[in-house]
Amino acid sequence: MDEVEVVVAHSERATLRVGDVFLKVDADQARIDVEAEVMALAPVPTPEVLWCRPPVLAIAAVPGTTLGRLGGPVTGSPAAWAAAGAAIRKLHDAPLPPRLGRAGRSVSELVAELDEECEALVTSGALPADLVARNRQVAEAALRPWIPAFTHGDLQIAHVFVHGDEVTGIIDWSEAGQGDALYDLATFTLGHEERLDDVLAGYGTDVDLDVIRGWWSVRSLLVVRWLMEHGFDAFAPGCEVDVLRSRM
């Protein structure tokens, strides 16, 4: 019998691995339902759903390896990163799923959430006021209307698997739905700005780089306190706080 590996665990959800099977346990049944639904709709390689009995979704492991992780070294050739960009573009060009996703919040909702979080970051002393103010300024570029696309919603590089120069699987779809395509691109390149040109070469269309940078600031500002409260280190080298510092 294989050992049980805890892949990630916090108060909202946990992912366990037993051999080639991943068990995703989620307190929110809606996220389980979304994940199973959108993986069936996505026109890119996704894990096979073995069974779904809320609060647990069982999926098969996908082949290949990730291109890296936030705060760690990255791997893969420029062609592999371009292949990831092409896969992301294929997803964004697909027919819209029926649900709004994490990247689909209205501009007014996002502004309200961001302003509240910026105030909390400063009041709590989690981050210096000038760092928060500068990144709130940079974030403004992302706070504009967008044309909805089929988005993953949490497209960290650790969620994209490749073998050679081919994308073999994209995992963790619980935040997927209609949203801003540039949010996905920003999430995928967060902390690895040097790979953005390779990703965009595969994506195959011009994008507004100020919006990408704006989403880097938005995402980082919104998650710092959550990460701290759930036992993750946003201050680790190359992680969210370093992303915010790079805008200074």
UniProtKB/TrEMBL annotation:
Organism domain of life: Bacteria
UniProt domain Aminoglycoside phosphotransferase: residue ranges: 35-207
Pfam assignment, any one: APH
SUPFAM superfamilies linked: Protein kinase-like (PK-like)
InterPro entries with a match to the protein in the record: AGP_Transferase (IPR051678), Aminoglycoside_PTrfase (IPR002575), Kinase-like_dom_sf (IPR011009)
Protein name according to UniProt: Phosphotransferase
